[in-house]
Amino acid sequence: MSRNNKITLLTMVLIGIAIIAYSMRDVKLSLLIHDVLTLNLWWILVAFLCICLYLLIEGVITKVLVSNRVKHFTFKDAIRVPLVEQLFNGITPFSSGGQPGQLIVMLQTGIDGGKASSVLLMKFVVYQAMIVVNFFFSLVIGFHFVASRLQVLALFVLFGFLIHFFVIVGLLLIMYWPTFTKKLAKLLFHPVKWFVKDEKFYSMQDTMYAKIDNLFEESVRIGRQPKLLLKVVVLTFFQLSFYYLIPYFIMLALGVTGANVIMVTSLHIMIVMIISLFPIPGGSGGAEFSFESLFHSFISSNSKLVLAMIIWRILTYYFGMAAGAFALALKPDKVDDSDKPA
């Protein structure tokens, strides 16, 4: 990890501590300590297992997609991919560093850059598609709950849905209508020419066209393997399900038993969507505010609400970054990219 990345990581941890300290301003320390001591650790363990399964399943997805093209790609290197993704997602605005971080890890193993990019693109397409599907159902189930209590957050929810929806529409256009997509991309990309030199502009445009061609070729290849695609879709569904269930198990650990699991899961899906709109790495500030705002109706005790938020952030944000820093330090196994899968 570079010096700048280390500084960013430390900065995000300090910002997180400051936000938690601010959230505790109206909470009696004695009540918070009492809530910590009375936690049901078995449910905390279940919540922890959920985040572990979320990461492990993404490792399995990576292994499945890479092993389809390259032999001798170990599960150790497969699990390094989502862990490093968590690290770079957590220290970059809009989680923009996750994809490059995954690519670097795969290149370290000796996988060809084109193949690695294709695998990551297909994984990204399926992941985005499943997010949009899950988010659509969460809107049907829980949007009225959000709109009736917090109209501002409701607007963020709708805006987030539109952004992710247009992302997946754009990806589908690339996969099934590349000629039109290139024309549309050229039209939308043209204003960039006003701000950069011609040489730089045409280089960026060529790179964009190459990525469109790459995704189209990968979609054609994966389309010829429906069983593989179905396997990735099913695995991604379970991966996201474990992640979305984490707040529910945290609430059970706090003794909150009257909440509807479907409603709680739907609200968590919305929170994840809201976080993606905040430019600060990890959605710091917005994540904590969204969680407290939406789950206040289920957790009446202010101290328990703050504790739930702290545990949730540790599991879904800080744990992933810590594991990613460890994974980044591991020495990768090497593959011979001339090998073909049996």
N/C terminus separation: 35 Å
The helicity comes to over 70%
**Beta-strand proportion:** under 5%
The largest pleated sheet is described as: none
Describe this structure in words.
- The structure is a single chain.
- With 342 residues, the chain is mostly helical.
- The chain has one domain (3-14, 28-329).
- It contains 14 helices and no strands.
- It has helices at residues 3-23, 29-37, 41-67, 75-91, 98-108, 113-149, 151-176, 178-189, 198-223, 226-244, 246-253, 261-275, 286-295, 302-329.
- Helix 7 crosses helix 12.
- The two termini are 35 Å apart.
- The model has no long low-confidence stretch (mean pLDDT 86).
- It is a multi-pass membrane protein.
- This is Phosphatidylglycerol lysyltransferase.
- It comes from Lentilactobacillus parabuchneri.
- One of its GO terms (molecular function) is phosphatidylglycerol lysyltransferase activity.
- Pfam families: LPG_synthase_TM.
Which helices and strands appear, and what pairs or packs with what?
Layout: H1 3-23, H2 29-37, H3 41-67, H4 75-91, H5 98-108, H6 113-149, H7 151-176, H8 178-189, H9 198-223, H10 226-244, H11 246-253, H12 261-275, H13 286-295, H14 302-329
Task: Summarize this structure briefly.
By secondary structure, the protein is an all-alpha fold. Helix content is 78%, strand content 0%.
